[in-house]
Amino acid sequence: MRVLIALVALAASLAAQPRRIVSTAPSITETLFALGLGDRVVAVSQFCHYPAEATRLPKVGSYMKPNVEAIVGLRPDLVIIQAKMPDSVAGQLERMKLPTLQVEHGTMDTIFEGIRDIAARTGVPERGAKLEADIRARLEAVRRRTAGRPRRSLVFIVGRAPGALEGLIAVGKGSYLNEPIAIAGGVNALASNVLPYPKLSLESVLGLNPDVLVDMGEMAETTGVTEAQKEAVVALWRRRSTLKSRVYAVASDIFVVPGPRVAEAAEAFARMLHPEAGR
Fold first, then answer.
1. What is the CA radius of gyration of the chain?
2. How many CB atoms lie within 10 A of CB 185?
3. Which of 56, 93, 223, 262 has fewest C-beta within 10 Å?
4. Concatenated DSSP letters for 182-219?
5. CATH 3.40.50.1980 in the chain, residues?
6. Cα(59)–Cα(56) distance, rounded to whole angstroms?
């Protein structure tokens, strides 16, 4: 009798789990797939590039402007959106009687909180706990590898005019990237700027002259970027003879999507900041 009751309870639990999930942001999509829930995802945002399976799913607009009509047409039993979205988005979904989960991915803490919330709502809390433990273990391995080494300065350029060192936008204090940079044994040279992504002049960057300069300013669209393009970016900075920084051109969502691949970002920063430390 007990076995029968347990089986009935399990069946009811499985039936209650959402089977058709719409993700409206890359960090949400990456979390769902990292939790092994890719087979339940029926649509993603237009900016979801990872994993490859996600690129083949229907698109429902951007995370700031999801297409509510398209979402409704997919008949989802869960729509996951980022917190602090315009009120109209959550309101429209609520009026359409669509079950919605809001998650926040602005810091390392909220990345883990989002993993736990998504795992709980989809009925796989144990997977969420394992994923979080795995990420934390990788981050701790990076921290140990760079412990006791010099705290090297880093500037991360996330935007600028194509082909020119103008209109520079960099990572400031308000960005979650400060945390993986610190774990990797570095310090953001712009950590005193309270804005997440402040605008900079070229002169200010040259004045900072950080140990490491990372540029993905021309590569916000991270797919299809060639090595030749990256080399051209490095050459652009090398023309400034007063700049003594090691320059890296990058084109990867691991640096702009605050999700479960944050450990990969920390590992990449460690290689840039402390190449002598090895992998």
1. 21
2. 23
3. 56
4. HHTTEEETTTT--SSS-EE-HHHHHHH--SEEEE-TT-
5. 2-123, 150-277
6. 9
In this structure, what token pair is assigned to residue 27? 């960090």
- Helices 108-121 and 125-146 meet at what angle, rounded to 10? 160
CA atoms within 13 A on the CB side of 119: 20
Query: How far is 235 from 250, CA to CA, in rounded Å?
Result: 14
Q: Which CATH architecture has domain 2-123?
A: 3-Layer(aba) Sandwich (3.40)
Cβ proximity of 260 and 161 under 8 Å: no
Residue 190, token pair as written in the block: 């712009």
Q: Please state, in angstroms and rounded to a whole number, the distance separating the CA atoms of residues 76 and 214.
A: 40
Q: What is the pLDDT of residues 22-39, one digit of tens each?
A: 999 999 999 999 999 999
Tokens of 72: 């409704």
Distance CA 224, CA 25 (A): 20
Q: Find, among 234, 206, 203, the residue nearest to 218 by Cα.
A: 234
Query: In this predicted structure, what is the pLDDT of residue 217?
Result: 85
Which pLDDT tens digit goes with each residue over 248-276? 999 999 999 999 999 999 999 999 999 98
